[in-house]
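Changelog-adjacent note: as of this version, every example in the card shows the full chain rather than a window. The one below runs 98 residues end to end.
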Amino acid sequence: MALRDDAIVGVLAISIEKGITWIDQLYQDPDAIDEGLGSHMLALLLPAMGRPVRLYTIQQNSRARHFFEAHGFCAKTFSNGEDNEERCPDILYELLDT
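Full-length structure tokens:
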């Protein structure tokens, strides 16, 4: 969790399932976007995460796609969204090395 003046401005939540680290959430306050907060949270936590690291993001979220690709994540699979909560086409990203 990232705080600014006692207010939560960012959250990064992970889980580990069957030896795979999952980024379950990476959110920032809209007013904190483009300040490097997401990059900072990843930089702090990625070294401690086992590999591979995986996450899903919505295909239409070009900002998230660019962010994760810039941090070394590669698209592994694309889906039509029928199996996710949002029912939106998504992408499974994976990071093997830092």
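Structural remarks: The two ends are 22 Å apart (CA to CA).
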